[in-house]
Amino acid sequence: MSAPVLELRGVTIPFGEATGASAPGLRDLDLVLEEGERFALVGASGAGKSSLLAAIAEPRPGVTGSIRIAGREFGGTVERRHTVVLLDQRPLLFPHLDVRRNVAFPLEVRGIRGEELDRGVERALDVVRMADFADRRPDSLSGGQAHRVALARAIAASPALLLLDEPFTGLDPELRRSLQETVREVTAHREITTLTVTHDVEEAGRMADRVGALHDGRLARVAPPAVLFEDPGSLGVARLIGWPNELPVVSSPGEVTLGGRALDPPPRRGAGVADGPAVLTFSRHGAEIVSEGEGHLTIEVERVTHAPHGATLHWTGITPRDPAAPPTTSRSRTLAPRPERGEVAVESRNAPQVGTRVGLRLRLERCRVYSPETPER
Amino acid sequence: MRRRVLLVGLAIWSLTPLALLAVVSVAGGWRFPTLLGDDPGLAAWRSLGGGALGHATSTSLALGIGTGVGAAAVGLLAGRALARERGGPRTLGLIFAFLPVATPPLLLGIGLQFTFLRLGLGGTAAGVWLAHLVPAIGYTTLYFVAVFTSWDFGIERAARQLGATRRQTLVRVIAPLLRRPLAEAALLGFLVSWAQVPLTLLVGQGRVRSLTIEVLSLVQAGQDGLAAAGALVLLLPPLLLIALATWGVREAEVVVA
Fold it and tell me: Which residues of B touch A58 (CB under 8 A)?
């Protein structure tokens, strides 16, 4: 059995290396990627995602723990070259070289010449459908074309591990999806292991077989996208993946109460949820709008926003309240539920008027109960 | 219309001294009341090739090339380092780079003269070259700080991560991208040396005869034709710089378009 392509053991990266701050940004990170696996790491801005990729690509001061690539623990950049390639947010094409020479670059620096070089360049350009642009200069390419060339250049290097740092940020949605598909196809075809970091949860779901969620400096959860998006595992990760609804509940053995009323069936509780105040959280699709007086609680329609994939109802106020539930104040070490507001997906044509009161029926099988406590630092 | 008048006025303002120089350089003599001089001819220009002026031109060229190359190389390294600094060290570095640029050359020359005399460099071409490097490196450092402040270091990182060694990154990526800034910085250094009078005079102690020094002597000696021809030769490198700058602007316009 071959060694994992990437193996991180106890990797700790100080926060803000440039500032010399000593507080850890990422702590005790363990992660193993097998050959051909596509992995995405999601995290909020500033969570340390890019620092992690940079540490894998190049030795960085202050990084501790073990980083093994293709079974070897590398000491320097030179040793890592030809094994790891980092695809940046920007294409970073060499402006003085045409597309062909850009793609040839990783082959030429390895001493590959002649027919083998030409074949390698042609294959890489064909895969990203840029063969017709071989003689163009980078400054004559569109943003999407430049990204395709950068991808061709990366795969021409035949890396064991391709790192993608928020690869298509700033591109229009259609182009972005097309490039995501291209990366998927190309890396699957060549069995290249990929590690993508992004703050875009949808992008992570589209590009990866497994997704890791970075929260509070730790790899809080690793799971296939379908599992992670259904069951975030903690309140922090639920917020990270965009679950906008939080209700204060009380958890006791075999029962979860909202406003003193037991929820039936009881929603699934996350690991480590102690008896007492807890938070019930759900995505936009975890509840439906019903008539006032029906459902689990009454809400007021604050506004309705529309998007191509449907409308979102923004609600405020909840009734009834439970005196035993945790206070709805701002966040601190304890992740208190957000103030009484949230969002629910509705059909545009059925969206109620702003200011009206309606009922909210929870789809309890889609709701999760988590502890408001953050893990100890 | 008003803009055209202004342009013509500017052209006359800029070109008149040069036109007069050209006339003087081909005038055999200039006695009242003749308007354009007597016995026009190319005698002054013919004597440029040999003798003191020819030798001085060679000296100036050698000093200028040496200063241009040296200042471009040092300025590149210093400017790159400074551009990557932040806060206090960057401010201090910029002050140190700006100091020899802002200091009057006469003051620099007096200071360097004493030191170079003790080191045995007074009156030598090497001493003058080192003296010229002082303000030239200031200029080129400031120039390269500007270049590297807008430089995309991500390009270098990309090259390394695609497998290039440090040397390959330098030769295949950095050097080609810096070709033009290096040429411009070298020309800038060359011009600082080419037009230098006080430093050459004080450190060279009259033994190092550059073109500017020679032209100055000719003016003092009343050899107007020869002085004018020499002065016009002095004009050639600045003209080259203007041509390069104009070409650079056009090239930038093409890229933007």
Answer: 157, 160-161
